[in-house]
Amino acid sequence: MACGSCSNENAFKAVFLSYMKRQRGGKEFSLEDMSSCMINLPPGCPKLSILSFHGAFHGRTFGALSVTHSKPIHKLDVPAFEWPIAHFPMYKYPLEENIVGNKAEDSKCLAEVEELIESFQRKGNPVAGMIIEPIQAEGGDHHASPQFFQALQKIGKEKGVALIMDEVQTGGGPTGKMWCHEHFDLPSPPDLVTFSKKLQTGGFFHLPEFKPDVAYRVFNTWMGEPSKVQVLRKVLEVMKRDELLKNVQSTGDILLNGLKTFQKKYPNHLNSARGRGTFCAVDATDAALRDKIIAKLRTKGIQSGGCGEKAIRLRPTLVFQSHHANIFLDSLESVLKEL
Question: Which end of the chain is less enclosed by CB atoms within 10 A, N or C?
Answer without folding.
Answer: C
